Amino acid sequence: MNAELELAIAVGMLCAAVGFAVGLAVGRGRQPRWAEKGSFTHKVSIGFATLDRMDGVLLRFEVEPESKMSGVEVGELRLPPGAAVSLITRGKDALVPSGRTTLRTGDQVLVVTALGKVDEVEDRLRAVSRYGRLAGWYESLEPPNSARAFGVRTAGESAA
């Protein structure tokens, strides 16, 4: 992709996220219908709303107290190409994060992604929630298709 097209896409996604946030603040009764997907198995429940005309999706999640996302910088999430953290609400404050912005427990996070990348983004967010900033490395130590790789505890393990 050339730089002009990338800039246009980034500006479009940012405008959509800002418009969405302003819409939430102004028209509380007109919120989009969030479809909840996933579970609290890996300490992250992700909701999504589509951006039909842009083939994009807004993913929303909260950094839960048990999640290892707390303390992770946005850049350390290592989201796939075509996905970006566009907005974080922390209490009454809303901020557009940089790669160095650190996630905190209780943060509400809005991720904009291409429609075809939703599963990949969700998988990455669950991995970071479970393993923290070294998620890719820790996952590589688990044998493929093992119970632990899927987050299932064995009889001798306690809930951490």
What is shown here, in short?
The chain is α+β, with helices and mostly antiparallel strands and 160 residues long.
Question: How would you explain this protein's 3D organization?
Answer:
Residues 46-127 form the RCK C-terminal domain. It comes from Nocardioides humi. Keywords: Membrane, Transmembrane, Transmembrane helix. This is RCK C-terminal domain-containing protein. The chain has 160 residues and is an alpha+beta fold. The chain contains 3 helices and 6 strands; from the N terminus they run αββββββαα. It has helices at 3-26, 118-131, 135-141, and strands spanning 35-37, 46-51, 56-62, 83-90, 93-95, 108-114. The protein has a 6-stranded antiparallel β-sheet with strand order 1-2-3-6-4-5, with helices on both faces. A hairpin with a 4-residue loop joins strand 2 (46-51) and strand 3 (56-62). The chain is globular.
